[in-house]
Amino acid sequence: MTSSADESTLKDEIARLEAELSLVRSQLQLISSSTPSEPDEPAPPPPKTLLPSHPLLLLSDSALPLGSFAFSSGLESYLAHHPNTPGNTLAAERFHHFLSLTLTSLATSTLPYLIAAYTKPPNLQDLDAELDACTLCPVARRASVAQGRALLTLWDRALGSEAGPSEAATALSNFSQAMKTPNSRLDDAENIALSGHFAPVWAAVTCALGISLHSSAYTFLFSHAKAVVSAAVRASVMGPYKAQEVLASGWLRGKIEGVMGANWERKVEEAGQGVVMCDLWIGRHELLYSRIFNS
Amino acid sequence: MPSPFPSTTSIPVPLLFLLTYGGGLVSGDHISLSIRLDPSTRLTITTQGSTKIFRPPVTPSTTTSPPTTRQDLTVHICPHAALWLAPDPVQPFAGSLYAQTQIFHVERGGSLGVVDWVSEGRKARGEQWAFEKWRGRNEVWDVPFGGEEKGEVGNKKKMRMLVRDAVVLEGRDIGERMDGKGVFGTVILRGRLFEGLGWFFVEEFGALPRIGGRDWGGAGERVKELTDRERWRKERLRREKEDGVLWTACFVRGCTVVKFAAEEVEGARQWLGSMLREEGSVGREFGEGGLMFVR
To answer: Secretion signal: which residues (chain B) (predicted)?
Structure first.
Protein backbone atom coordinates (compact mmCIF):
# COMPACT_ATOMS: atom_id res chain seq x y z
CA MET A 1 0.00 0.00 0.00
CA THR A 2 2.65 2.50 1.07
CA SER A 3 4.90 1.80 -1.86
CA SER A 4 2.12 2.23 -4.41
CA ALA A 5 1.03 5.46 -2.70
CA ASP A 6 4.62 6.66 -2.84
CA GLU A 7 4.79 5.69 -6.46
CA SER A 8 1.71 7.67 -7.40
CA THR A 9 2.93 10.67 -5.39
CA LEU A 10 6.20 10.53 -7.24
CA LYS A 11 4.44 10.21 -10.56
CA ASP A 12 2.31 13.23 -9.75
CA GLU A 13 5.44 15.12 -8.79
CA ILE A 14 7.11 14.20 -12.09
CA ALA A 15 4.05 15.32 -14.04
CA ARG A 16 3.98 18.61 -12.12
CA LEU A 17 7.67 19.26 -12.69
CA GLU A 18 7.38 18.40 -16.36
CA ALA A 19 4.49 20.79 -16.81
CA GLU A 20 6.44 23.48 -15.01
CA LEU A 21 9.49 22.83 -17.13
CA SER A 22 7.57 23.11 -20.39
CA LEU A 23 5.96 26.34 -19.19
CA VAL A 24 9.34 27.85 -18.34
CA ARG A 25 10.73 26.65 -21.66
CA SER A 26 7.96 28.30 -23.60
CA GLN A 27 8.48 31.51 -21.63
CA LEU A 28 12.16 31.41 -22.51
CA GLN A 29 11.29 30.78 -26.10
CA LEU A 30 8.99 33.80 -26.10
CA ILE A 31 11.61 36.04 -24.49
CA SER A 32 14.42 34.89 -26.74
CA SER A 33 12.26 35.18 -29.82
CA SER A 34 10.90 38.58 -28.86
CA THR A 35 14.30 40.00 -27.88
CA PRO A 36 15.51 41.58 -31.07
CA SER A 37 19.10 40.86 -31.92
CA GLU A 38 19.14 44.01 -33.98
CA PRO A 39 16.91 46.82 -32.70
CA ASP A 40 15.28 47.57 -36.11
CA GLU A 41 14.53 44.00 -37.13
CA PRO A 42 10.88 42.89 -36.64
CA ALA A 43 10.27 40.15 -34.09
CA PRO A 44 10.06 36.67 -35.62
CA PRO A 45 6.64 35.05 -35.23
CA PRO A 46 5.96 32.98 -32.12
CA PRO A 47 6.01 29.22 -32.59
CA LYS A 48 2.91 27.78 -34.23
CA THR A 49 1.94 25.79 -31.17
CA LEU A 50 1.30 29.01 -29.27
CA LEU A 51 -1.23 30.24 -31.83
CA PRO A 52 -4.91 29.32 -31.72
CA SER A 53 -6.14 26.73 -34.20
CA HIS A 54 -7.07 28.65 -37.33
CA PRO A 55 -9.62 26.15 -38.68
CA LEU A 56 -11.21 25.83 -35.25
CA LEU A 57 -11.76 29.59 -35.07
CA LEU A 58 -13.31 29.39 -38.51
CA LEU A 59 -15.68 26.54 -37.66
CA SER A 60 -16.74 27.95 -34.29
CA ASP A 61 -17.78 31.24 -35.86
CA SER A 62 -21.52 31.73 -35.67
CA ALA A 63 -21.31 33.45 -39.07
CA LEU A 64 -20.49 30.07 -40.62
CA PRO A 65 -23.17 29.64 -43.30
CA LEU A 66 -24.84 26.50 -41.92
CA GLY A 67 -28.19 28.09 -41.22
CA SER A 68 -28.01 26.99 -37.59
CA PHE A 69 -29.89 30.15 -36.56
CA ALA A 70 -33.04 28.73 -38.15
CA PHE A 71 -33.32 25.99 -35.51
CA SER A 72 -34.15 26.20 -31.84
CA SER A 73 -33.78 22.45 -31.20
CA GLY A 74 -37.11 22.30 -29.46
CA LEU A 75 -36.75 25.44 -27.33
CA GLU A 76 -39.61 27.21 -29.05
CA SER A 77 -41.88 24.22 -28.57
CA TYR A 78 -40.69 23.71 -24.99
CA LEU A 79 -41.61 27.30 -24.15
CA ALA A 80 -45.00 26.90 -25.78
CA HIS A 81 -45.60 23.78 -23.66
CA HIS A 82 -44.64 25.72 -20.52
CA PRO A 83 -46.43 29.02 -20.88
CA ASN A 84 -45.83 31.83 -18.45
CA THR A 85 -48.31 31.50 -15.68
CA PRO A 86 -48.21 32.96 -12.20
CA GLY A 87 -46.34 30.64 -9.91
CA ASN A 88 -44.39 29.18 -12.78
CA THR A 89 -40.61 29.32 -12.54
CA LEU A 90 -38.90 32.22 -14.23
CA ALA A 91 -38.28 32.04 -17.95
CA ALA A 92 -34.51 32.24 -17.37
CA GLU A 93 -34.60 29.27 -14.98
CA ARG A 94 -36.67 27.24 -17.39
CA PHE A 95 -34.22 28.16 -20.12
CA HIS A 96 -31.25 26.83 -18.15
CA HIS A 97 -33.16 23.63 -17.53
CA PHE A 98 -33.91 23.24 -21.22
CA LEU A 99 -30.34 23.99 -22.25
CA SER A 100 -29.11 21.31 -19.88
CA LEU A 101 -31.64 18.79 -21.28
CA THR A 102 -30.89 19.50 -24.91
CA LEU A 103 -27.13 19.08 -24.32
CA THR A 104 -27.71 15.77 -22.55
CA SER A 105 -29.94 14.62 -25.38
CA LEU A 106 -27.39 15.57 -28.05
CA ALA A 107 -24.57 13.89 -26.16
CA THR A 108 -26.36 10.57 -25.59
CA SER A 109 -27.87 10.30 -29.06
CA THR A 110 -25.41 11.99 -31.42
CA LEU A 111 -21.97 12.43 -29.87
CA PRO A 112 -21.10 8.71 -30.35
CA TYR A 113 -21.60 9.18 -34.10
CA LEU A 114 -19.29 12.19 -34.11
CA ILE A 115 -16.58 10.26 -32.29
CA ALA A 116 -17.01 7.19 -34.52
CA ALA A 117 -16.87 9.21 -37.75
CA TYR A 118 -13.81 11.11 -36.54
CA THR A 119 -12.03 7.95 -35.48
CA LYS A 120 -12.88 6.02 -38.65
CA PRO A 121 -13.66 8.45 -41.50
CA PRO A 122 -14.01 5.68 -44.12
CA ASN A 123 -17.18 4.62 -42.27
CA LEU A 124 -18.80 7.99 -42.91
CA GLN A 125 -21.54 6.69 -45.22
CA ASP A 126 -22.51 3.79 -42.96
CA LEU A 127 -22.59 6.04 -39.91
CA ASP A 128 -24.75 8.55 -41.73
CA ALA A 129 -27.20 5.78 -42.68
CA GLU A 130 -27.25 4.38 -39.15
CA LEU A 131 -27.81 7.78 -37.58
CA ASP A 132 -30.66 8.35 -40.00
CA ALA A 133 -32.34 5.14 -38.80
CA CYS A 134 -32.04 6.46 -35.24
CA THR A 135 -33.47 9.88 -36.02
CA LEU A 136 -37.17 9.15 -35.73
CA CYS A 137 -38.41 12.70 -35.41
CA PRO A 138 -38.82 14.42 -38.80
CA VAL A 139 -38.35 17.89 -37.33
CA ALA A 140 -35.03 16.92 -35.73
CA ARG A 141 -34.03 15.14 -38.93
CA ARG A 142 -34.66 18.24 -41.02
CA ALA A 143 -32.47 20.32 -38.71
CA SER A 144 -29.60 17.82 -38.70
CA VAL A 145 -29.67 17.19 -42.44
CA ALA A 146 -29.95 20.89 -43.36
CA GLN A 147 -26.84 21.76 -41.36
CA GLY A 148 -24.92 18.67 -42.44
CA ARG A 149 -25.57 19.32 -46.13
CA ALA A 150 -24.66 22.99 -45.72
CA LEU A 151 -21.36 22.01 -44.13
CA LEU A 152 -20.72 19.55 -46.92
CA THR A 153 -21.28 22.32 -49.48
CA LEU A 154 -18.95 24.56 -47.50
CA TRP A 155 -16.35 21.81 -47.55
CA ASP A 156 -16.72 21.37 -51.32
CA ARG A 157 -16.57 25.04 -52.16
CA ALA A 158 -14.29 26.55 -49.57
CA LEU A 159 -12.62 24.39 -46.96
CA GLY A 160 -11.60 21.30 -48.90
CA SER A 161 -9.02 22.94 -51.15
CA GLU A 162 -6.96 24.10 -48.16
CA ALA A 163 -6.98 20.76 -46.38
CA GLY A 164 -4.25 18.33 -47.37
CA PRO A 165 -4.99 14.76 -48.42
CA SER A 166 -6.28 12.53 -45.63
CA GLU A 167 -8.66 9.64 -45.04
CA ALA A 168 -11.26 12.13 -43.86
CA ALA A 169 -10.86 14.35 -46.93
CA THR A 170 -11.27 11.31 -49.18
CA ALA A 171 -14.33 10.18 -47.23
CA LEU A 172 -15.87 13.63 -47.61
CA SER A 173 -15.27 13.86 -51.34
CA ASN A 174 -16.69 10.34 -51.81
CA PHE A 175 -19.67 11.28 -49.69
CA SER A 176 -20.43 14.42 -51.57
CA GLN A 177 -19.98 12.58 -54.87
CA ALA A 178 -22.44 9.93 -53.73
CA MET A 179 -24.92 12.59 -52.63
CA LYS A 180 -24.87 14.04 -56.14
CA THR A 181 -25.50 10.75 -57.93
CA PRO A 182 -29.13 10.28 -58.87
CA ASN A 183 -31.34 8.18 -56.59
CA SER A 184 -29.03 8.45 -53.62
CA ARG A 185 -30.89 11.45 -52.24
CA LEU A 186 -34.34 10.03 -52.55
CA ASP A 187 -36.14 10.44 -49.29
CA ASP A 188 -38.53 7.71 -50.33
CA ALA A 189 -38.99 5.38 -47.42
CA GLU A 190 -38.13 2.27 -49.38
CA ASN A 191 -35.10 3.76 -51.06
CA ILE A 192 -33.02 5.29 -48.36
CA ALA A 193 -29.48 6.29 -49.10
CA LEU A 194 -27.36 9.14 -47.83
CA SER A 195 -28.82 11.94 -45.78
CA GLY A 196 -25.88 14.11 -44.79
CA HIS A 197 -26.41 14.31 -41.03
CA PHE A 198 -24.61 17.09 -39.21
CA ALA A 199 -22.59 15.18 -36.59
CA PRO A 200 -20.74 12.71 -38.86
CA VAL A 201 -20.07 15.37 -41.52
CA TRP A 202 -18.81 17.74 -38.82
CA ALA A 203 -16.53 15.00 -37.51
CA ALA A 204 -15.02 14.32 -40.92
CA VAL A 205 -14.52 18.02 -41.70
CA THR A 206 -12.84 18.78 -38.36
CA CYS A 207 -10.70 15.66 -38.73
CA ALA A 208 -9.63 16.66 -42.26
CA LEU A 209 -8.73 20.14 -41.03
CA GLY A 210 -6.51 18.76 -38.29
CA ILE A 211 -8.68 19.78 -35.34
CA SER A 212 -8.31 17.41 -32.38
CA LEU A 213 -11.18 15.08 -31.48
CA HIS A 214 -11.70 16.75 -28.10
CA SER A 215 -11.85 20.20 -29.69
CA SER A 216 -14.17 18.90 -32.38
CA ALA A 217 -16.61 17.39 -29.87
CA TYR A 218 -16.48 20.34 -27.49
CA THR A 219 -17.04 22.83 -30.31
CA PHE A 220 -19.93 20.76 -31.67
CA LEU A 221 -21.70 20.84 -28.30
CA PHE A 222 -20.79 24.47 -27.65
CA SER A 223 -22.08 25.51 -31.09
CA HIS A 224 -25.34 23.72 -30.25
CA ALA A 225 -25.55 25.72 -27.02
CA LYS A 226 -24.81 28.93 -28.91
CA ALA A 227 -27.60 28.23 -31.40
CA VAL A 228 -30.09 27.51 -28.60
CA VAL A 229 -29.03 30.62 -26.66
CA SER A 230 -29.30 32.72 -29.79
CA ALA A 231 -32.79 31.29 -30.34
CA ALA A 232 -33.64 32.29 -26.77
CA VAL A 233 -32.64 35.88 -27.50
CA ARG A 234 -34.82 35.99 -30.58
CA ALA A 235 -37.68 34.36 -28.69
CA SER A 236 -37.34 37.17 -26.10
CA VAL A 237 -36.41 34.84 -23.27
CA MET A 238 -33.30 36.91 -22.48
CA GLY A 239 -31.36 39.90 -23.67
CA PRO A 240 -28.04 39.80 -25.51
CA TYR A 241 -25.87 40.45 -22.42
CA LYS A 242 -27.60 37.77 -20.40
CA ALA A 243 -27.07 35.47 -23.38
CA GLN A 244 -23.33 36.10 -23.38
CA GLU A 245 -23.29 35.59 -19.63
CA VAL A 246 -24.81 32.14 -20.10
CA LEU A 247 -22.29 31.29 -22.82
CA ALA A 248 -19.37 32.53 -20.76
CA SER A 249 -20.52 30.81 -17.57
CA GLY A 250 -18.66 28.10 -15.75
CA TRP A 251 -22.05 26.40 -15.48
CA LEU A 252 -22.21 25.85 -19.25
CA ARG A 253 -18.57 24.77 -19.45
CA GLY A 254 -19.16 22.29 -16.68
CA LYS A 255 -22.31 21.04 -18.36
CA ILE A 256 -20.55 20.45 -21.70
CA GLU A 257 -17.58 18.77 -20.03
CA GLY A 258 -19.97 16.69 -17.95
CA VAL A 259 -22.02 15.33 -20.86
CA MET A 260 -18.84 14.75 -22.89
CA GLY A 261 -17.31 12.76 -20.06
CA ALA A 262 -20.46 10.73 -19.39
CA ASN A 263 -20.81 9.71 -23.04
CA TRP A 264 -17.23 9.58 -24.29
CA GLU A 265 -16.97 5.80 -24.16
CA ARG A 266 -20.44 5.18 -25.56
CA LYS A 267 -20.45 3.16 -28.77
CA VAL A 268 -22.85 3.95 -31.58
CA GLU A 269 -24.89 0.79 -30.86
CA GLU A 270 -25.38 2.10 -27.33
CA ALA A 271 -26.35 5.60 -28.39
CA GLY A 272 -29.92 6.55 -27.62
CA GLN A 273 -32.25 9.27 -26.55
CA GLY A 274 -31.35 10.37 -23.02
CA VAL A 275 -34.19 12.88 -22.70
CA VAL A 276 -37.33 11.29 -24.10
CA MET A 277 -39.30 14.51 -23.64
CA CYS A 278 -37.05 16.21 -26.22
CA ASP A 279 -38.49 13.94 -28.94
CA LEU A 280 -41.98 14.98 -27.92
CA TRP A 281 -41.26 18.70 -27.76
CA ILE A 282 -39.37 18.73 -31.05
CA GLY A 283 -41.99 16.54 -32.74
CA ARG A 284 -44.79 18.79 -31.51
CA HIS A 285 -43.08 21.87 -32.90
CA GLU A 286 -45.28 21.28 -35.94
CA LEU A 287 -48.34 21.93 -33.80
CA LEU A 288 -47.31 25.43 -32.74
CA TYR A 289 -49.78 28.12 -33.71
CA SER A 290 -47.02 30.51 -34.69
CA ARG A 291 -43.36 29.70 -35.28
CA ILE A 292 -40.13 31.67 -35.55
CA PHE A 293 -37.88 28.64 -36.04
CA ASN A 294 -37.77 25.50 -38.14
CA SER A 295 -37.29 23.25 -35.11
CA MET B 1 -58.16 -14.14 -55.66
CA PRO B 2 -57.83 -15.03 -52.00
CA SER B 3 -56.82 -12.26 -49.67
CA PRO B 4 -53.20 -12.51 -48.60
CA PHE B 5 -54.43 -12.08 -45.06
CA PRO B 6 -56.71 -14.94 -44.09
CA SER B 7 -59.79 -13.84 -42.26
CA THR B 8 -59.48 -14.19 -38.54
CA THR B 9 -63.13 -14.76 -37.89
CA SER B 10 -62.71 -18.50 -38.37
CA ILE B 11 -59.36 -19.03 -36.64
CA PRO B 12 -58.63 -16.96 -33.55
CA VAL B 13 -55.19 -15.37 -33.37
CA PRO B 14 -53.08 -17.14 -30.76
CA LEU B 15 -52.29 -15.12 -27.70
CA LEU B 16 -48.89 -15.54 -26.09
CA PHE B 17 -48.41 -14.35 -22.54
CA LEU B 18 -44.96 -13.43 -21.35
CA LEU B 19 -44.93 -14.51 -17.73
CA THR B 20 -42.21 -13.99 -15.19
CA TYR B 21 -41.87 -15.75 -11.89
CA GLY B 22 -43.57 -13.54 -9.33
CA GLY B 23 -44.45 -11.03 -12.02
CA GLY B 24 -41.03 -9.55 -12.24
CA LEU B 25 -37.34 -9.91 -12.90
CA VAL B 26 -34.60 -9.75 -10.33
CA SER B 27 -31.06 -8.56 -10.64
CA GLY B 28 -29.04 -10.65 -13.07
CA ASP B 29 -32.02 -12.32 -14.74
CA HIS B 30 -31.48 -12.65 -18.43
CA ILE B 31 -34.36 -13.68 -20.63
CA SER B 32 -33.63 -14.35 -24.25
CA LEU B 33 -36.51 -15.16 -26.54
CA SER B 34 -36.47 -15.94 -30.22
CA ILE B 35 -39.69 -16.22 -32.22
CA ARG B 36 -40.40 -16.99 -35.85
CA LEU B 37 -43.70 -16.33 -37.54
CA ASP B 38 -44.25 -18.63 -40.52
CA PRO B 39 -45.80 -17.23 -43.70
CA SER B 40 -49.43 -16.13 -43.29
CA THR B 41 -49.52 -16.62 -39.52
CA ARG B 42 -50.47 -14.19 -36.81
CA LEU B 43 -49.52 -13.81 -33.19
CA THR B 44 -50.32 -11.51 -30.34
CA ILE B 45 -47.83 -11.23 -27.48
CA THR B 46 -48.93 -9.60 -24.28
CA THR B 47 -48.49 -9.71 -20.51
CA GLN B 48 -50.84 -9.99 -17.55
CA GLY B 49 -49.53 -6.92 -15.79
CA SER B 50 -46.52 -4.67 -15.69
CA THR B 51 -43.09 -6.30 -15.76
CA LYS B 52 -41.52 -5.36 -12.45
CA ILE B 53 -37.77 -4.89 -12.38
CA PHE B 54 -36.42 -5.41 -8.87
CA ARG B 55 -33.34 -3.73 -7.52
CA PRO B 56 -30.22 -5.74 -6.79
CA PRO B 57 -29.83 -6.77 -3.15
CA VAL B 58 -27.87 -4.30 -1.12
CA THR B 59 -24.61 -6.03 -0.31
CA PRO B 60 -22.13 -4.06 1.72
CA SER B 61 -18.66 -3.33 0.38
CA THR B 62 -18.96 -4.86 -3.06
CA THR B 63 -16.48 -3.60 -5.57
CA THR B 64 -18.09 -4.99 -8.72
CA SER B 65 -21.27 -3.29 -9.92
CA PRO B 66 -24.39 -5.44 -9.64
CA PRO B 67 -25.52 -7.28 -12.77
CA THR B 68 -28.06 -5.72 -15.12
CA THR B 69 -31.40 -7.43 -15.66
CA ARG B 70 -31.85 -8.17 -19.36
CA GLN B 71 -34.57 -9.10 -21.78
CA ASP B 72 -33.71 -9.80 -25.39
CA LEU B 73 -36.28 -10.58 -28.04
CA THR B 74 -35.59 -11.48 -31.65
CA VAL B 75 -38.47 -12.00 -34.03
CA HIS B 76 -38.50 -13.06 -37.65
CA ILE B 77 -41.68 -12.28 -39.55
CA CYS B 78 -42.26 -14.11 -42.83
CA PRO B 79 -44.29 -12.69 -45.73
CA HIS B 80 -47.98 -12.19 -44.91
CA ALA B 81 -47.37 -12.95 -41.26
CA ALA B 82 -48.19 -10.37 -38.61
CA LEU B 83 -47.08 -9.79 -35.03
CA TRP B 84 -48.82 -7.57 -32.52
CA LEU B 85 -46.56 -7.11 -29.49
CA ALA B 86 -48.57 -5.26 -26.91
CA PRO B 87 -47.42 -5.78 -23.33
CA ASP B 88 -48.09 -3.79 -20.21
CA PRO B 89 -45.41 -1.27 -19.31
CA VAL B 90 -42.09 -2.22 -17.79
CA GLN B 91 -41.97 -0.96 -14.22
CA PRO B 92 -38.40 -0.44 -13.04
CA PHE B 93 -38.16 -0.13 -9.26
CA ALA B 94 -35.83 2.28 -7.49
CA GLY B 95 -32.22 1.23 -7.81
CA SER B 96 -32.82 -1.31 -10.58
CA LEU B 97 -30.61 -1.82 -13.62
CA TYR B 98 -32.32 -2.93 -16.79
CA ALA B 99 -31.58 -3.34 -20.48
CA GLN B 100 -33.87 -4.66 -23.18
CA THR B 101 -33.28 -5.24 -26.86
CA GLN B 102 -36.01 -6.13 -29.33
CA ILE B 103 -34.93 -6.90 -32.87
CA PHE B 104 -37.52 -7.45 -35.59
CA HIS B 105 -36.65 -8.87 -38.99
CA VAL B 106 -39.61 -8.18 -41.20
CA GLU B 107 -39.64 -9.77 -44.62
CA ARG B 108 -41.36 -7.78 -47.35
CA GLY B 109 -45.05 -8.42 -47.03
CA GLY B 110 -44.85 -9.10 -43.29
CA SER B 111 -46.43 -6.81 -40.70
CA LEU B 112 -45.35 -5.67 -37.26
CA GLY B 113 -46.93 -3.65 -34.50
CA VAL B 114 -45.04 -2.98 -31.27
CA VAL B 115 -45.97 -1.09 -28.14
CA ASP B 116 -43.10 -0.47 -25.75
CA TRP B 117 -43.65 1.58 -22.62
CA VAL B 118 -41.99 2.30 -19.29
CA SER B 119 -43.32 3.68 -16.05
CA GLU B 120 -41.64 5.66 -13.30
CA GLY B 121 -41.66 2.78 -10.78
CA ARG B 122 -43.75 2.28 -7.67
CA LYS B 123 -45.53 5.59 -7.50
CA ALA B 124 -47.33 4.60 -4.30
CA ARG B 125 -43.95 4.32 -2.63
CA GLY B 126 -42.89 7.67 -3.96
CA GLU B 127 -40.60 6.22 -6.60
CA GLN B 128 -40.18 8.58 -9.52
CA TRP B 129 -37.69 7.47 -12.14
CA ALA B 130 -35.44 6.37 -9.30
CA PHE B 131 -33.84 3.42 -11.09
CA GLU B 132 -30.11 3.20 -11.61
CA LYS B 133 -30.15 2.52 -15.32
CA TRP B 134 -32.69 1.84 -18.04
CA ARG B 135 -31.82 1.04 -21.62
CA GLY B 136 -34.19 0.06 -24.38
CA ARG B 137 -33.59 -0.61 -28.02
CA ASN B 138 -36.07 -1.54 -30.73
CA GLU B 139 -34.81 -2.24 -34.21
CA VAL B 140 -36.88 -2.93 -37.30
CA TRP B 141 -34.99 -4.51 -40.18
CA ASP B 142 -36.21 -4.79 -43.70
CA VAL B 143 -35.55 -8.25 -45.16
CA PRO B 144 -36.12 -8.87 -48.88
CA PHE B 145 -39.05 -11.12 -49.82
CA GLY B 146 -37.92 -14.70 -49.27
CA GLY B 147 -34.73 -13.41 -47.73
CA GLU B 148 -34.78 -15.97 -44.96
CA GLU B 149 -34.71 -18.94 -47.36
CA LYS B 150 -31.83 -17.38 -49.23
CA GLY B 151 -29.91 -17.09 -46.01
CA GLU B 152 -29.92 -13.33 -46.09
CA VAL B 153 -30.89 -12.84 -42.46
CA GLY B 154 -27.86 -11.52 -40.68
CA ASN B 155 -26.31 -10.38 -43.94
CA LYS B 156 -26.03 -6.64 -43.46
CA LYS B 157 -25.66 -6.10 -47.19
CA LYS B 158 -29.07 -7.61 -47.88
CA MET B 159 -30.95 -6.45 -44.82
CA ARG B 160 -31.45 -2.84 -43.97
CA MET B 161 -32.13 -1.28 -40.62
CA LEU B 162 -35.22 0.85 -41.06
CA VAL B 163 -35.52 2.28 -37.58
CA ARG B 164 -33.68 2.03 -34.31
CA ASP B 165 -35.57 3.45 -31.40
CA ALA B 166 -33.12 3.61 -28.53
CA VAL B 167 -33.48 5.12 -25.08
CA VAL B 168 -30.64 5.48 -22.62
CA LEU B 169 -31.51 6.63 -19.14
CA GLU B 170 -28.54 6.82 -16.82
CA GLY B 171 -27.44 9.34 -14.26
CA ARG B 172 -28.78 11.07 -11.19
CA ASP B 173 -31.14 13.50 -12.89
CA ILE B 174 -33.53 11.20 -14.76
CA GLY B 175 -36.56 12.47 -12.85
CA GLU B 176 -35.77 16.05 -13.83
CA ARG B 177 -35.65 15.04 -17.48
CA MET B 178 -39.21 13.71 -17.41
CA ASP B 179 -41.03 16.98 -16.91
CA GLY B 180 -43.55 15.53 -14.50
CA LYS B 181 -44.53 12.58 -16.67
CA GLY B 182 -44.89 9.16 -15.07
CA VAL B 183 -44.83 7.01 -18.19
CA PHE B 184 -43.52 7.20 -21.73
CA GLY B 185 -43.58 4.89 -24.69
CA THR B 186 -43.30 4.21 -28.37
CA VAL B 187 -45.51 2.49 -30.90
CA ILE B 188 -43.84 1.25 -34.08
CA LEU B 189 -45.89 -0.02 -37.02
CA ARG B 190 -44.71 -1.61 -40.23
CA GLY B 191 -46.39 -3.44 -43.07
CA ARG B 192 -49.75 -3.64 -44.77
CA LEU B 193 -51.78 -4.88 -41.84
CA PHE B 194 -50.91 -1.78 -39.80
CA GLU B 195 -51.13 0.74 -42.62
CA GLY B 196 -54.59 1.91 -41.63
CA LEU B 197 -53.61 2.29 -37.99
CA GLY B 198 -50.50 4.22 -39.00
CA TRP B 199 -52.50 6.65 -41.09
CA PHE B 200 -54.99 7.01 -38.27
CA PHE B 201 -52.31 8.06 -35.77
CA VAL B 202 -50.69 10.47 -38.23
CA GLU B 203 -54.00 12.05 -39.20
CA GLU B 204 -55.15 12.41 -35.60
CA PHE B 205 -51.79 14.01 -34.79
CA GLY B 206 -52.36 16.49 -37.61
CA ALA B 207 -55.82 17.20 -36.21
CA LEU B 208 -54.55 18.14 -32.73
CA PRO B 209 -55.34 21.73 -31.76
CA ARG B 210 -52.54 24.25 -32.38
CA ILE B 211 -50.48 25.07 -29.32
CA GLY B 212 -50.63 28.71 -28.30
CA GLY B 213 -53.49 29.41 -30.68
CA ARG B 214 -56.63 31.18 -29.62
CA ASP B 215 -60.09 29.83 -29.75
CA TRP B 216 -61.85 32.30 -32.03
CA GLY B 217 -65.09 30.38 -31.95
CA GLY B 218 -67.42 32.97 -30.47
CA ALA B 219 -71.02 32.94 -29.43
CA GLY B 220 -71.99 34.14 -32.90
CA GLU B 221 -70.75 30.98 -34.54
CA ARG B 222 -73.36 28.54 -35.63
CA VAL B 223 -73.22 25.35 -33.65
CA LYS B 224 -72.10 22.65 -36.03
CA GLU B 225 -73.50 19.16 -35.99
CA LEU B 226 -70.54 17.01 -34.89
CA THR B 227 -69.84 13.74 -36.63
CA ASP B 228 -69.25 10.65 -34.48
CA ARG B 229 -65.52 10.92 -35.12
CA GLU B 230 -65.50 14.59 -34.10
CA ARG B 231 -67.41 13.84 -30.94
CA TRP B 232 -64.98 11.06 -30.07
CA ARG B 233 -62.01 13.35 -30.80
CA LYS B 234 -63.41 16.11 -28.62
CA GLU B 235 -63.83 13.74 -25.70
CA ARG B 236 -60.37 12.23 -26.29
CA LEU B 237 -58.76 15.68 -26.34
CA ARG B 238 -60.47 16.50 -23.06
CA ARG B 239 -58.99 13.33 -21.53
CA GLU B 240 -55.57 14.02 -23.02
CA LYS B 241 -55.52 17.40 -21.32
CA GLU B 242 -56.74 15.98 -18.03
CA ASP B 243 -54.22 13.11 -18.04
CA GLY B 244 -51.32 15.20 -19.31
CA VAL B 245 -50.91 13.08 -22.42
CA LEU B 246 -48.41 14.39 -24.97
CA TRP B 247 -47.82 12.52 -28.20
CA THR B 248 -46.47 12.69 -31.72
CA ALA B 249 -46.85 10.47 -34.77
CA CYS B 250 -45.06 10.40 -38.09
CA PHE B 251 -44.10 8.23 -41.01
CA VAL B 252 -40.40 7.56 -41.01
CA ARG B 253 -38.42 5.24 -43.25
CA GLY B 254 -41.29 2.95 -44.11
CA CYS B 255 -42.64 2.73 -40.57
CA THR B 256 -45.04 4.71 -38.45
CA VAL B 257 -43.54 5.88 -35.17
CA VAL B 258 -45.71 7.16 -32.33
CA LYS B 259 -44.16 8.60 -29.17
CA PHE B 260 -46.24 9.29 -26.11
CA ALA B 261 -45.96 10.31 -22.47
CA ALA B 262 -48.51 10.83 -19.73
CA GLU B 263 -48.63 11.72 -16.07
CA GLU B 264 -49.76 8.26 -15.06
CA VAL B 265 -49.92 4.78 -16.53
CA GLU B 266 -53.71 4.77 -16.45
CA GLY B 267 -53.88 7.98 -18.49
CA ALA B 268 -51.59 6.54 -21.13
CA ARG B 269 -53.54 3.25 -21.14
CA GLN B 270 -56.81 5.10 -21.55
CA TRP B 271 -55.42 7.15 -24.43
CA LEU B 272 -53.88 4.21 -26.24
CA GLY B 273 -57.03 2.14 -25.79
CA SER B 274 -59.20 4.92 -27.09
CA MET B 275 -57.04 5.32 -30.20
CA LEU B 276 -56.88 1.59 -30.94
CA ARG B 277 -60.59 1.00 -30.40
CA GLU B 278 -61.69 3.97 -32.46
CA GLU B 279 -59.54 2.89 -35.40
CA GLY B 280 -60.61 -0.70 -34.89
CA SER B 281 -58.13 -2.73 -36.95
CA VAL B 282 -56.28 -4.33 -34.02
CA GLY B 283 -59.50 -5.70 -32.56
CA ARG B 284 -60.67 -6.81 -35.97
CA GLU B 285 -57.43 -8.49 -37.07
CA PHE B 286 -56.13 -9.83 -33.76
CA GLY B 287 -59.29 -10.22 -31.71
CA GLU B 288 -59.98 -8.93 -28.21
CA GLY B 289 -56.71 -10.46 -27.00
CA GLY B 290 -54.87 -7.74 -28.86
CA LEU B 291 -56.57 -5.12 -26.72
CA MET B 292 -56.17 -6.86 -23.35
CA PHE B 293 -53.27 -4.62 -22.41
CA VAL B 294 -55.43 -1.52 -22.59
CA ARG B 295 -58.34 -2.93 -20.64
So the answer is: 1-28
